[in-house]
Design a protein that fits this description.
With about 270 residues, the chain is of the alpha/beta class. The chain is about 35% helix and about 25% strand. The protein has one domain: Spore Coat Polysaccharide Biosynthesis Protein SpsA, Chain A (Alpha-Beta Complex). It is built from 10 helices and 12 strands. α1 crosses α4.
């Protein structure tokens, strides 16, 4: 019987920042080597076909052996979740979803595998994350209200200040720390999602109705129907991601479209 691949990884790029992508790939390789795990990475390029992409098979082959990666490119940008869903047919024990603006700590993958192996009910791990400057980035969230999302994403600091307690509650500041495992946060962000592959497939991946934003929150809510989710602080990453408001009008419109869809599918909460 053929041995099952221990870990598959899916990475979606769209007009990537090459410096950040190089950091992501180098840190991923170092973490894979430390874990000494059999793996296959699927890289999906959403850069429109009429544009020249900085990423191709030749570029990826500088990082991975040919047998260890699959590169594919869509004619058009199909969206974050739909691209990742192309990995739903993988055969592996664990499946890792990562962003191309992530630095993965050397022991992260091994720690994730060990934790999953020790906790059979755990189907999804979310990591301890920081920004590049070392400030904690809180990936675990309470179920949001419209007010919280608008404040957090778009309000200046002066407006946010009177709502600091509300915003801290949303980011679970008093509940989650860098020392203790936390079980079943209401929602988790999607820059690094370490799945038991059977759970990833049982959830049928991301909801294709989301083009960008909120697909990770939606998926984590659905994941809890099948398993436990764990915040595991020994799994560490640095994430360079930013807010939609900093990325221009197109991203703001995508954010609002996905926010409305999220509340329509789940429950509206205004305040």
């Amino acid at each position: 019987m053929k041995n099952i691949t221990k870990l598959t990884i899916s990475l979606v790029v769209y007009r990537p920042n090459l410096k950040q992508l190089e950091e992501t790939l180098n840190s991923l390789i170092a973490s894979l080597e430390y874990a000494s795990v059999t793996y296959h990475i699927y890289i999906f390029d959403n850069t429109p076909s009429q544009e020249q992409s900085v990423v191709d098979e030749s570029y990826i082959s500088h990082y991975f052996e040919t047998d260890n990666f699959t590169y594919s490119r869509a004619d058009n940008n199909v969206g974050f979740g739909v691209a990742h869903n192309r990995s739903l047919s993988v055969t592996s024990e664990f499946h890792l979803i990562i962003n191309p603006d992530l630095v993965i700590e050397r022991k992260a993958i091994l720690n994730a595998i060990c934790f999953m192996s020790e906790h059979e009910r755990c189907g999804l791990i979310t990591p301890f994350a920081t920004w590049e400057n070392g400030v904690v980035q809180r990936l675990c969230k309470q179920y949001p209200s419209v007010l919280v999302l608008l404040l957090r994403g778009f309000a200046p600091s002066l407006i946010k200040k009177p709502f600091s307690v509300l915003l801290d509650e949303y980011e679970m500041v008093g509940l989650i720390n860098h020392n203790e495992v936390y079980w079943n946060p209401p929602m988790v962000s999607g820059c690094f999602m370490f799945f038991r592959t059977a759970i990833w497939q049982k959830c049928r991946g991301f909801d294709k109705r989301y083009f960008l934003y909120f697909e990770d929150f939606d998926l984590s809510i659905r994941t809890k129907k099948f398993c436990d989710i764990a915040y595991v602080p020994s799994v560490k990453v640095v994430h360079h991601g930013g807010y939609a408001a900093r990325k221009g009008l197109k991203h703001i419109l995508l954010f609002f479209r996905s926010m409305l869809l999220f509340f329509k599918i789940h429950n509206w909460r205004w305040f």
